[in-house]
Design brief:
The protein is α+β, with helices and mostly antiparallel strands. The protein contains 8 helices and 14 strands. About 25% of the residues lie in helices and about 25% in strands. The strands form 2 sheets. It has a 10-stranded antiparallel β-sheet with strand order 4-5-6-8-7-12-13-11-10-9, sandwiched between helices. The chain has a 4-stranded mixed β-sheet with strand order 1-2-3-14, with no helix packed on it. A hairpin with a 2-residue loop joins β9 and β10. α3 crosses α6. The radius of gyration is 20 Å and the shape is globular. It binds zinc ion.
Length: about 325
């Protein structure tokens, strides 16, 4: 396993040092699987000094379609082949996405509460939500022979792209997945063909005693990727596993891990995140969950997706994975 990194030195006369010559070091890293590069640039991710007041945005549940009074009345119902109108597991309710992103696309409203901050999203909430999501995902795989790639995703608060405050998951299942999933699947197949083993088993074997290894929640092992795709990127993986059923205990393990990662974000003063759990009907790709922190949501929050992210597909992070892996381990 190659962990390739290079440093680049930028030299200039700094107004912050009375115009003495300074040299700033930037590290460029390459992901061992996909070759995608990231830059570690200290202090490139600004956070507000004061505790954000979310109440004006999260406090008003009027008109929310995902609150208990509405979620069973006004949300779409599944087509007949799914076998139920809407799905229910614990507090979670699943239903088709009114704005689908592909052939099969649903939403899981996670909580009865209209809003919960990230520190109060519990392992049980995620476990039940993932069960509700996988009831649908595995149903699609059985129903549609062409559907081979799925993801269970979450945007949380506006910096993460969510228009709805009420915590919810979104799934997408189709015949090709996304650009990133294409890259992931191709690279994983190439790796397996070249090495006769799977990438994630080798990665964990290489990382297990190192400073980017976070720990495990049940069968899910967590690492901070060598070349993070975004701020505080953490990955949970179950090497060798296929597509889990909705009642597979591994979903409880994923739920515990997500909640622990979010506790770590909360402790670092963060309040917004995305995650994507990739599920591919291919033995080269086990379930892989990527979670990243987003800009801290407050009244005048700034985007963390500048031209680097949107137009260059370049990861730029301020904290190295070796640092936040240890911080996260304390919450696992
Ligand atoms: Zn609501």
């Amino acid at each position: 396993m190659e962990f390739e990194r290079w440093t680049q030195d930028a030299t200039f006369y700094s107004p912050l040092e009375e115009f003495e010559e300074v040299t700033v070091e930037v590290e460029v890293r390459e992901d061992p699987l996909t070759g995608r590069r990231s830059r570690v640039v200290p202090e490139s991710f600004l956070t507000p000094e004061e505790e954000p007041d979310l109440e004006p945005v999260v406090g008003d549940s009027e008109g929310c379609f995902f609150c208990p009074d509405a979620v069973g009345e006004v949300t779409p119902k599944y087509p007949d082949w799914v076998g139920f109108d809407r799905g229910h597991v614990g507090e979670a309710t699943s239903f088709p996405n009114l704005n689908p992103y592909g052939a099969h696309s649903n939403v899981v409203a996670l909580t009865e509460d209209h809003f919960r901050p990230i520190g109060e999203l519990t392992p049980e909430i995620f476990a039940d939500g993932l069960r509700a999501a996988f009831d649908y995902v595995t149903g699609v795989f059985e129903h549609d022979d062409e559907a081979t790639v799925a993801s269970v995703n979450m945007n949380f608060l506006r910096p993460a792209g969510s228009s709805i405050v009420h915590p919810h998951l979104q799934t997408l299942v189709d015949d090709r997945g996304t650009n990133y999933q294409d890259r992931l699947v191709s690279a994983a197949r190439e790796y397996r063909d070249a090495h006769d083993t799977d990438y994630w088993s080798d990665l964990l074997a290489a990382e297990r005693d190192g400073e980017r290894h976070v720990g495990a929640t049940g069968d899910v092992e967590w690492v901070a990727p060598f070349a993070p795709r975004h701020h505080r990127h953490l990955t949970g993986v179950v090497p060798g596993m296929g597509v889990p059923d909705a009642d597979d205990p591994v979903l409880v393990d994923f739920g515990a891990g997500i909640a622990a990662v979010l506790d770590g974000y909360d402790a670092a003063g963060l309040n917004s995140f995305n995650f994507a759990l990739h599920v591919v009907d291919d033995p080269a790709v086990p379930p892989v969950l990527d979670v990243v922190a987003r800009s801290v949501f407050d009244e005048y929050y700034w985007s963390d997706s500048p031209f680097f992210t949107v137009l260059h597909d370049e990861g730029v992070v301020d904290v190295a994975p070796e640092t936040y892996a240890a911080e996260t381990a304390a919450h696992l």
